[in-house]
Amino acid sequence: MTRINSSIYRSARRQRHRLPILLGLAAAGALAVAVQRKVRKAQRDNPPQGNFIEIEGVRLHYLERGAGPPLVLLHGNGTMMQDFQLSGLIDVAARNHRVIVFDRPGYGWSTRPRTRIWGPVAQARLLHKALELLGVQSATVVGHSWGTLVALALALEQPRAVDRLVLLSGYYFPTLRLDVPVLAPPAIPIIGDLMRYTLSPWLGRLLWPHLLKAMFDPAPVPKRFESFPKWMALRPSQLRAAAAESALMVPSVMALQRRYQELGMPVTIVAGAGDRVASAQHQSQRLHEQLSRSHLHLVSGTGHMVHHTALPQVLAAMGLSADTNVEPPSPSASARAAAPPAHNAAV
After folding, report:
1. Could you report the per-residue pLDDT of 110-152, keeping only the tens digit for each?
2. Distance of CA 12 to the CA centre of its chain
3. Distance from CA of residue 62 to its chain's centroid?
């Protein structure tokens, strides 16, 4: 009887030890199911608005508007082409330019194969091939935030393809960044995969208002930005791209900064004087001092999302003009105007 009671006791202890593991697995499964539901709904609500080019195993999504000299727009980390749509920049620029906006690899509807490291140079080479296929020999290239690194890499790798650079709120010189170890883990194999499909999207949604405030501060977040497709940005695939670029940011600028003196084309640098993400004084001002053919525009009262909160100043720096009394169009109107034929609207 004593041996039987002892066996029952040991079995009960094993069950108690297993219980937290089983509960954790059940919770992770429930989170994963909920994430997939959110992802499917987000993709139904935000179908592709442009067309696709297949290049070296990458399905690259792009939107094209207007006619005239080519103008290429490259978005920052964690976002997608809707960022430029909501700012109104596409609509104004398309009045006199052939505007081409890419979802960079891993963002929006563009794929990002895991077989290579997608640093600025790798993305620049891919985009150059895409522009060649689109018949664009040279263009004005506009990059925002992380997109400025891709724009710089494109200008350095293919100087004949870039007539002019416009750099918005860029990060150009390495610094100690406390946000990197916080944002990079979802890119770690296995552990990161588990995080991205369970906990990370929900944490991102919880922190979303605080992240927006930091991005726009000291200016308020525009009401129209509320329609930005949050759950498109919180999909596991896009979180992996954003995390990888957070991890690559400092080593990327360490490699690029040695080549800035090679830039021979005109460079327009625009930054919000109150930028909390990339210090205008330590980044944009310093880059301007190193480039002989650059023009610097620091905009007071605005932060990292300068193309949203100071669009007239950004347009003026680019040599464009707009009626400052005209509110940028609603995202639904932009989507209708830019929507491709039905056979292009599926992945």
Report:
1. 999 998 999 999 999 999 999 999 999 999 999 999 999 999 9
2. 51
3. 14
Handedness of CA 103, 345, 162, 323 (dihedral sign): negative
Q: At a CB cut-off of 8 Å and minimum separation 6, what does 42 contact?
A: 229, 230, 231, 232, 235
Q: Structure pTM?
A: 0.85
260: DSSP letter: G
What is the C-alpha to C-alpha distance for residues 43 and 229, in angstroms, rounded to an integer? 9
Three-point CA angle 246, 247, 250, nearest 5°: 90
| CATH among 3.30.479.30, 3.40.50.1820, 3.40.980.10, 3.20.20.30 for 46-344 | 3.40.50.1820
pLDDT per position as a tens digit, 57-114 = 999 999 999 999 999 999 999 999 999 999 999 999 999 999 999 999 999 999 999 9
**CA proximity to 228, closest of 340, 328, 112, 145:** 328
- What CA–CA distance (Å, rounded) separates 180 from 164? 30
8 A C-beta contact, residue 146 and residue 76: yes
Question: Could you tell me the residue ranges of all domains in the chain?
Answer: 46-344
Torsion angle of C-alpha atoms 131, 135, 138, 144, degrees rounded to 10: -30
CB 226 within 8 A of CB 138: no
Contact between residue 103 and residue 130 where contact means Cβ atoms under 8 Å apart: no
Peptide linkage before 251 cis (omega within 30 of 0): no
